Amino acid sequence: MQTSVFDYDLPRELIAQHPLPERAMSRMMVLRRDTGAIAHARAGRLPEFLRAGDALIVNDTRVIPARVFGRRDDTGGRVEALLLRETAPGLWEAMLRMSGAPRPGMRLTLGNGRIRATVREKTGAGRAIVEIPAGKPLPDVLDEVGSMPLPPYIRRPRGGEGASAEDRERYQTVYARHAGAVAAPTAGLHLSAAMLDAVRSGGVHVASITLHVGPGTFRPVKSNDTNDHVMEAEFYRVGPEAAGAVREARGRGGRVVAVGTTTVRTLEAVAAAHEGEVTPCEGNTALFIRPPYRFLATDALLTNFHLPRSTLLMLVCAFAGVEPVLRAYRAAVAEGYRFYSYGDCMLIV
Question: What is the 3-state secondary structure (H, E, C) of the chain?
Fold first, then answer.
């Protein structure tokens, strides 16, 4: 399918720059898969759209404050580093923004001098493996000197260094538990502890999976044909509770309601690998869901409004249909919905 199919016009002023004061205040468009009908509500009303016997599955990954700023030791030039993952003890894959390309042996001083890094290998455009000497555990150092890795369409002073205490709290779900993501599973940003309590009180089983969201989830699709795009692999884990919640919901005629596209990708990757069953397991997935796709483990979806031509929008279109979703997006623009990570949400049932 042509990538251009997944394009739409969005006024810049509808790109949310800050979260609303309360998570449940976000607007929630409700799209029915069977009729294409659209209704409007607030995220706080999510429990009303769930039924006893459903399973609500969330992604409990925790975002690392993995963006750090500093200087090249040789020229003093400014450096922005996004530390993606530890590939071996003391070695980290990083995205580097600087004047000139990273080269082996280049030394960097980051995070107010707290992190000394040496480029060991260039792995791609703007990417490298850097060595960071052992000392205080790097995640602890990042908690002190790192910034939340906000996407570039959220503008902060000094190119991202101005990410605030508000971002530390709100660019994180209330149930974030396992550190490892460099981007938030944004659909979950609308859920508060009180909402989840109300969901459970209604007889819905809330369970979590983990998928550590990497930059590949948000990497633009640059190919003209969606079939030519390759996703980057991301680590996932599905435990016995989530697998049991899916199995029990299906067994009693309930729905599996996924919070976010990352949750969908995890459930579908596991189901595809296990003859349609969601079983306890862990691994890496590079599953790219786009139309047409037969869903094995997902019955409803809570999701944000995503960028044009993104893999996230393609997944949503695969789930609810290209025309119904794009029509809903046009309605969202006309109604002044807030878009992207800190924006409003859509419930597809």
Answer: CEHHHHCCCCCHHHECCCCCCCHHHCEEEEECCCCCCEEEEEHHHHHHHCCCCCEEEEECEEECCCEEEEEECCCCCEEEEEEEEEEECCEEEEEEECCCCCCCCCEEEECCCCEEEEEEEEEECCEEEEECCCCCCHHHHHHHHCECCCCCCCCCHHHHCCCCHHHHHHCCCCCCCEEEECCCCHHHHHCCHHHHHHHHHCCCEEEEEEECCCHHHHCCCCCCEHHHCCCCCEEEEECHHHHHHHHHHHHCCCCEEEECHHHHHHHHHHHHHCCCCCCCEEEEECCCCCCCCCCCCCCEEEEECCCCCCHHHHHHHHHHCHHHHHHHHHHHHHCCCCECCCCCEEEEC
pTM: 0.94
**Contact between residue 170 and residue 50 where contact means Cβ atoms under 8 Å apart:** no
Query: Is the omega angle on the peptide bond into residue 291 within 30 degrees of 0, that is, cis?
Result: no
Q: Are 18 and 342 within 8 A, CB to CB?
A: yes
**Residue 152 resides in a domain:** no
266 plus 307 within the same structural domain:
yes
Residue 92: give its domain's CATH number: 2.40.10.240
Structural domain harbouring 273: 3-63+169-348
The low-confidence residues of the chain, meaning pLDDT below 50, are none
pLDDT value for 53: 97
pLDDT of residue 162: 61
Q: What is the pLDDT of residue 237?
A: 98
pLDDT of 91 reads 95
Residues 78 and 48 in one domain: no
Q: Shortest CA distance to 264 belongs to which of 232, 240, 296?
A: 296
